[in-house]
């Protein structure tokens, strides 16, 4: 009996250690979400401090996404040459440097430059964290541990909005008010340094990926790490031999492997690109990057607009949990179709409400009925996105491509997603100045168009092995 209890305690302790390793790596996802969304609370403060308009604002917000694309493209090469842990530490340094740099920018150009640095860190974290978790996690719990990354991203978004609101309130209710001699919006951007330092310290406490160690012929260290992360009783030498065999037979895809079909690329690659573009063209990141500006443009004060950002971020967490629970039970296509329909309706509701906006600038406002409809629509819209396209697209991109081209096709589709994200982010302030209601009608149209796209082009991957995908 005591032997059984001892074995159970050992297994629980082992699982707890593996969970800690995955959670430490997922801290990169937390910073991904935090850095992406923290600008939301600071954007009106930046506008007033530097006396810039919609054009300059959109460039400062969106330029980080170009840095993200560079970071994502270079992360794989860096991870293969430097190791996963060193690349995590590089990302932590870039996040911290961006936090300090954006806190004390001498001008709007310098602020944009430091935003690029933070964007590069986002791109690196978006690649290295899930790759590391997949390589370290035991097969029996890999799916659950892989979900840590998405959970960490939405948690990072929520915490950034909560910190923004708290700092704004502490400073007096306006992002340009001072707290300890520094404007609130500066504290918002600089606060990122704290989780960046924690990420760097955690990276010192977790082991290097056994796959990377084996690729560099460091078998003794790889044996030690595998004994640390694999289930008790695993034949470590057999696992090393298995990894060596897979690495020796792996096909390194090249761009020409993606070619074929009527329009240059294989049809499945275009479908992956289409899914990525639709995910962004429904306008979701407008909520996470500009919601404080959005709500202020219809007459809600800065403090309350930040509180709304906190609540929508909390709804985002709830929706993500729903998706994680349902994606393997209900399937990818039903969730995507339900989310598309929900987003089309709620975006239409928001467009209707915003069409009643009266006045401009600080004099703009909505009547009580329309303001209530807009608030409810925004929260339901975020919920519909989070339980569907927010998670489903990333699951599909990891499953839908044939083995031979999976890695490269995924990187192409992900790059398309960054570009689409940039296009929506850079265009929103100008489009909102032109016609806020019409802007939301456009997003609603893309939500409607995503329904036939899913119905006719997306194959269900639930319960299928990766080998069945071609």
UniProtKB/TrEMBL annotation:
PROSITE patterns in the cross-refs: MFS, SUGAR_TRANSPORT_1, SUGAR_TRANSPORT_2
Membrane topology type: Multi-pass membrane protein
InterPro entries for this protein: MFS_dom, MFS_sugar_transport-like, MFS_trans_sf, Myo-inositol_Transporter, Sugar/inositol_transpt, Sugar_transporter_CS, XylE-like
Alphabetically ordered keywords of this record: Cell membrane, Membrane, Sugar transport, Transmembrane, Transmembrane helix, Transport
Family (UniProt): Belongs to the major facilitator superfamily. Sugar transporter (TC 2.A.1.1) family.
Classification of source organism: Bacteria, Bacillati, Actinomycetota, Actinomycetes, Kitasatosporales
UniProt key word Magnesium: no
Bilayer-crossing regions: 15-34, 59-78, 90-106, 112-133, 145-167, 263-290, 302-327, 334-354, 374-396, 408-428, 440-458
Chief location category: membrane
Membrane is among the record's keywords: yes
Intracellular or extracellular location(s): Cell membrane
Residues covered by the Major facilitator superfamily (MFS) profile domain: 21-462
Protein name listed in UniProt: Sugar porter family MFS transporter
Example of a GO MF term: transmembrane transporter activity
